[in-house]
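ok trying this again, last paste got cut off
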Amino acid sequence: MTRADVVRAAMGASVIIHAVNPPGYRNWERLVLPMLDNTIVAARSAGARVMLPGTLYNYDPSATPVIDERTPQRPPGRKGTVRVEMERRLMEAAPDVRSLVVRAGDFFGPGARQSWFAQAFAKPPLTRIMNPGTPRVGHAWAFLPDLAETIVRLIELPPDRLRPCERLQFPGHDIADGSEIVAAIRRATGRPDLPERHFPWALMRALAPFGGFPREVLEVRPFWQYPMRLDGRRLRELVGDLPCTSLDAAVASALNA
């Protein structure tokens, strides 16, 4: 939040990975945009490109089954509105400040503790699987090591290969049904009888008027009710075949971590 410190930290950088959030996600809506503004100023000073991990929250899941670079951003919730504004500010700063947005589905993998996978599907101690998904509805997942390798390939490209404000989609694992994740967890743990429970959405709805976690989590429920697929054609044009660890290997790695 201290612009001079951010500018000083960025001196000599060619890329700034803007992957930060306020501590504990508190005051997120009030702090996120000033944090990005400081990064944009720092990037302008250093002549660096800003790389922003993007989300699906920018889109209405009930009306956006496929996302590519041209898909209109019409967010249904507060998180998405802020995310759209973040990307708008990056576009507005171009071409003076170059930027790269790589959009992906829900993260999972080593180190991804604040994720649906770590806090619901496989929350330790693993006594049951909590599934927030809807039967026969697809969901986009991103295994973090695959996503990280893809981002490295992108930032190592010659600068003229990327548009001044490039927005790309990382397809990751497009899981057709939440039962695939459940089955992979059971295989990885060697526990075919590991019980599965459905996430208590009704309880969240009842508690949402009081704010806090129930209100926040209820806002993202539509992303579990409608399928959304990320179209990675432009990304493949730039870096070729994308890294894609098999689902079983990725789930085993996430659980081991």
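PB: full thing came through this time. Residues 127 and 175 are 23 Å apart (CA to CA).
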